[in-house]
Amino acid sequence: MSDFNLSQALEGPLNLEDNGFEGRFFNMTEVQDEIFSIEDGLALLVSRNPKTLRHVAILLLAANRMRRGLSCCVRGLREEELCSAIMDSLVTETTVGTQSSSTTVTRIFHRLNSVTQCTLCDMVQKDVVYSSDELKLQAITLQGGQGERKVNFKMSKYMTLSDGVGQTVVLSIGRDLHMSCSLEDGKATLLLERCDEGELKKISDDGDMDRFLFFKRTEGVSQNSFESVKCRGWLISTSWEEESKPLEMCEVDSANRLTCFKLN
């Protein structure tokens, strides 16, 4: 019987040299190709040669994760959309951070040259629309032919020495209208505020401008949540059942609130 432990192998580092596998792992004379069908129109080509059980387990886990992620995709994706869906299902978005011995560390968020245009739709198919009269965002189930009511957001990405909680973004409408979150009487409030784009090029968390920043986290292929940088633990949300209600901030796991959105 082999003394191979699957759980230890999956958790441990892949060290080919220490285990004497490097020579035959790269021995191309023994390579064999095999094709696995994952979804309609999608196959996985595996070039293989003698490996350990750990290599096989990692391959199976990756293929199964890909299959679960793609099962919720819409059929008929374009090639670039299919490629993006595959990468989203296999890659977990991570921000690498550093720690300091100081009790108070000021972080500076620098805007990157990376802007995405998108609309937001919650997990029960309510789209986010904008009421210019009241400067409010609402979640509404739109009927056919009403697609022009969706808000086209400009999502700008920021970089900082973070603590690994997600990609930092600013959500804007046009050039000078931006989502913000501030704490009022112990409750986080979501607002639309006017602010010149130039003032958001570099943001420090030791002032009040970090109210415009949100941590974006992505799960699977299309579930995105937005947590306030200034008010940690508070997320952008919509009502679970009620129509035409404004977007609000809610705490994690709040009842009757939806905190995941699809970006279209």
UniProtKB/TrEMBL annotation:
<keyword id="KW-0202">Cytokine</keyword>
<keyword id="KW-0964">Secreted</keyword>
<keyword id="KW-0963">Cytoplasm</keyword>
<dbReference type="Pfam" id="PF00340">
    <property type="entry name" value="IL1"/>
</dbReference>
<dbReference type="GO" id="GO:1901222">
    <property type="term" value="P:regulation of non-canonical NF-kappaB signal transduction"/>
</dbReference>
<keyword id="KW-0458">Lysosome</keyword>
<dbReference type="GO" id="GO:0019221">
    <property type="term" value="P:cytokine-mediated signaling pathway"/>
</dbReference>
<dbReference type="GO" id="GO:0051781">
    <property type="term" value="P:positive regulation of cell division"/>
</dbReference>
<comment type="similarity">
    <text>Belongs to the IL-1 family.</text>
</comment>
<dbReference type="GO" id="GO:0071222">
    <property type="term" value="P:cellular response to lipopolysaccharide"/>
</dbReference>
<protein>
    <recommendedName>
        <fullName>Interleukin-1 beta</fullName>
    </recommendedName>
</protein>
<dbReference type="GO" id="GO:0010628">
    <property type="term" value="P:positive regulation of gene expression"/>
</dbReference>
<dbReference type="InterPro" id="IPR008996">
    <property type="entry name" value="IL1/FGF"/>
</dbReference>
<dbReference type="GO" id="GO:0042119">
    <property type="term" value="P:neutrophil activation"/>
</dbReference>
<dbReference type="GO" id="GO:0005615">
    <property type="term" value="C:extracellular space"/>
</dbReference>
<keyword id="KW-0497">Mitogen</keyword>
<dbReference type="GO" id="GO:0006955">
    <property type="term" value="P:immune response"/>
</dbReference>
<dbReference type="GO" id="GO:0048246">
    <property type="term" value="P:macrophage chemotaxis"/>
</dbReference>
<dbReference type="InterPro" id="IPR000975">
    <property type="entry name" value="IL-1_fam"/>
</dbReference>
<dbReference type="GO" id="GO:0005125">
    <property type="term" value="F:cytokine activity"/>
</dbReference>
<dbReference type="GO" id="GO:0005829">
    <property type="term" value="C:cytosol"/>
</dbReference>
<keyword id="KW-0395">Inflammatory response</keyword>
<keyword id="KW-0666">Pyrogen</keyword>
<dbReference type="GO" id="GO:0001660">
    <property type="term" value="P:fever generation"/>
</dbReference>
<dbReference type="GO" id="GO:0005764">
    <property type="term" value="C:lysosome"/>
</dbReference>
